[in-house]
């Protein structure tokens, strides 16, 4: 009946190889991002799969994601998301749900998040920072966001043998 119906009932596969992107930033040199391969696969009634592999300033990175509606055109639909990104001996994991609350795209977020790595300073070149050579490290918590506020609660911060818990 409409383009939206056609997209929701169809299967799509997209593959990108050899992509290049330069990200200008205010701190440091531009980031050079090389996409060696990116795959997008969507089928009716199954979670969409997205995989990206490449290099950021000659450091390998990968992103894997599964979701059930982030790219759908419906409003007020519950979206589940599981994503992992790896770069410079650092891993970011997100797992949870997003809910569209209105046609103005107000999104309520409930995600379990975890950032971990071997040493904090492995991100210095990419972030343009001077982080200390501490590690291993891990930050995890529940990220919630609504119309009025954003919170990271049930939080754990661990660097080496030191552990801090709170909000």
Q: Mind explaining what this structure looks like?
A:
This protein is mainly β and 167 residues long. Helix content is 7%, strand content 59%. Strands 1-2-3-4-5-6-7-8-9-10 form a ten-stranded antiparallel β-sheet, with no helix packed on it. A hairpin with a 2-residue loop joins β9 (150-159) and β10.
Helices, strands, pairings?
Layout: H1 3-9, E1 12-23, E2 31-42, E3 48-56, E4 59-67, E5 78-87, E6 90-100, E7 107-117, H2 124-127, E8 137-145, E9 150-159, E10 162-166
Antiparallel strand pairs: 1-2, 2-3, 3-4, 4-5, 5-6, 6-7, 7-8, 8-9, 9-10
Gist?
This protein is mainly beta and 167 residues long. It has helices spanning 3-9, 124-127, and strands spanning 12-23, 31-42, 48-56, 59-67, 78-87, 90-100, 107-117, 137-145, 150-159, 162-166.
Notable traits:
167 residues; mainly beta; ten-stranded antiparallel beta sheet; 10 strands; 7% helix; globular
Care to count the β-strands? 10
- Per DSSP, what share of the residues sits in E-state strands of 2 or more residues? over 45%
Biggest sheet, spatial arrangement of strands? 1-2-3-4-5-6-7-8-9-10
Low-confidence stretches: none
